[in-house]
Inverse folding.
């Protein structure tokens, strides 16, 4: 029976192929990203941070929106990736692509090891254990001063030019293109996962885990796989931030980092694949403006926006758009 849920009828296969087929509307975020490169040349450094954070939101959406794993400690993997890439660059190996791979492996291993333990629980217990994992790693980074820089942060990073030709500049041009390219590959990977039978089974686990157990689906193993993949993607996001900023502080492992990306995802829409694109942009762009004009009270504006989303935009801004224009077939 364990293999029964992998068998699909011809009609189901046709429906899967239709969902998996790229729609024209899905090119919109990438067209906007290309346009932003030329329209906002003075904000490319911020744009690179936004693109890297979107990948972080995508990784969280994979476990929260599709597998139903509630976590407040996703910064554990983000920070692991950031410190991995940063430590390599600070100790003589600043090649960025291999740094991303190293960050993905390190974060994925942390996700695999921690997930094997904490995914045996559910509810509030699971939520608290995700916090504990992040707190333990944060304290480890704080104590390992000789390696991580501790509270002073990891400095002295020397990130080499990409492919030996494209050097990171002060204006963020290279960083923007670099982050956009990595995000595109990460988006393709997440999209392939959520539209594959594996991804549909994750949705089934989120909706009714008892039924998935009843049909013989290996629930725990699939949740662990999703958790590990999500951790690796979060690690890549952290490495992007570290390489483009060339600095890593303890904040990459903090609760604020986990909570902020969760807020971004809620604003955009949880479990909708493109919610992270909207949520991160709608959060970080005003943040940059408000933190400059009203540095003391800018969180108030974010709070008001969150209240609006909760009251009037169930399913996030993307959910609101889908309800307003259902005939447009907005991608899920």
């Amino acid at each position: 029976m364990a293999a029964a849920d992998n068998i699909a009828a011809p009609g189901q296969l046709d429906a899967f192929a239709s969902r998996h087929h790229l729609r024209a509307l899905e090119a919109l975020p990438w067209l906007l990203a290309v346009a932003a490169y030329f329209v906002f040349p003075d904000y490319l450094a911020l744009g690179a941070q936004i693109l890297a954070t979107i990948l972080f939101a995508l990784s969280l959406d994979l476990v929260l929106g599709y597998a139903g794993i509630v976590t407040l400690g996703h910064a554990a993997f983000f920070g692991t990736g950031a410190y991995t890439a940063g430590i390599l660059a600070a100790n003589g190996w600043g090649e960025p692509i291999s740094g991303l791979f190293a960050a993905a492996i390190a974060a994925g291993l942390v996700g695999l090891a921690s997930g094997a333990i904490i995914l045996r629980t559910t509810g509030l217990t699971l939520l608290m254990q995700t916090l504990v994992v992040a707190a333990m790693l944060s304290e480890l980074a704080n104590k390992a001063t000789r390696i991580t820089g501790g509270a002073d942060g990891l400095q002295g990073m020397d990130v080499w030019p990409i492919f030996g030709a494209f050097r990171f500049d002060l204006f963020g041009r290279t960083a923007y293109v670099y982050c956009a390219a990595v995000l595109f590959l990460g988006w393709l990977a997440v999209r392939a996962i959520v539209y594959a039978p594996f991804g549909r089974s994750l949705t089934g686990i989120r909706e009714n885990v008892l039924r998935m157990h009843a049909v013989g689906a290996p629930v725990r193993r699939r949740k662990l796989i999703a958790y590990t993949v999500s951790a690796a993607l979060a690690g890549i996001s952290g490495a992007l931030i570290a390489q483009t900023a060339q600095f890593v502080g303890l904040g990459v492992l903090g609760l604020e980092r986990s909570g902020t990306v969760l807020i971004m995802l809620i604003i955009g829409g949880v479990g909708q694949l493109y919610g992270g694109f909207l949520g991160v942009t709608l959060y970080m762009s005003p943040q940059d403006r408000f933190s400059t004009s009203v540095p003391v009270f800018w969180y108030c504006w974010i709070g008001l926006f969150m209240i609006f989303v909760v009251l009037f935009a169930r399913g996030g801004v993307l959910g609101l758009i889908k309800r307003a224009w259902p005939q447009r077939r907005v991608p899920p």
